[in-house]
C-alpha cells in the first residue's frame, strides 16, 4: 500500500536545516530506499514562489503567494510503501526523529488511492 506523508511546517520560523540534519536525512532516505519503503520524496519551495488556483461557483481565480492566511504549509512530502497505516506511522516517526529538538513540524499521513478510472486505463 502507498501512503503520502505530508510534512507540515511554519515557514516563518527562520530555521534552516543544518549540515548535520541534511547528512542524517540523506542516510535515512538512502536506508529507506534500499528497504523499498521510500518511493519518492522532496521538499517544496516557499509559498512566496507558489500560486493557488481556486474554482468556485463556475469561476477560476489565481492568487500569488505567499499565502498569509496559512499558519502551517506543506513543506515537503514522502511517498511511502508500507504494509499498513501503522507501518506508515512508524516510517514517518523515523523521519521526524532525525530532526532533533529544535524543530516543530508534523506530518499528515493518508493512504493513496492507486487505481485509475476505467476510462483512463482502457481508452476506447
TrEMBL record:
Annotated ranges, domain YCII-related: 1-94
Domain of life (superkingdom): Bacteria
Name of a matching Pfam family: YCII
InterPro entries associated with the record: Dimeric_a/b-barrel, YCII
Family (UniProt): Belongs to the YciI family.
Official protein name in the record: YCII-related domain-containing protein
Organism this protein belongs to: Dokdonella fugitiva
